[in-house]
Amino acid sequence: MGLTVLLFVCLATLGGWMRYQRLQGETVPAIATPPQLWLSLRRLHVGLGILLTLTVLLLLAIGVVGTLGHFGSLGHSPHLIMGLTVVGLTLTSAWSATQINNPNTVWARSLHLSINGLLMLALALVSWTGWVVVQKYLP
Hints:
mainly alpha, elongated
């Protein structure tokens, strides 16, 4: 979970920097000049976004398998609901990100930002509910 939060913070930082660069008039912000460097902020942001999505899906699989293996059923705490919320928001954010460069979807960027704001709150709540669950296993 710590990796997920770290990736989210990195993505928020990069996204904020890209927004700043866009507001300054740059169309494709680059990490360093010259702009023909292969690694741009956008590519790094997309790569970290893919990594975040895969990490969230891996955590979902680990949580479901671990809970079923230990309890035999799901739904013992609010952590399941919060976890599914994080998965849904992450997948929605990833989908909206794929729509940002489409000229017919001018709403995609604002949707992406709004979903990510909700995702920040959901990550905090799933971390808290996860901590409560972990306390049950510790002696």
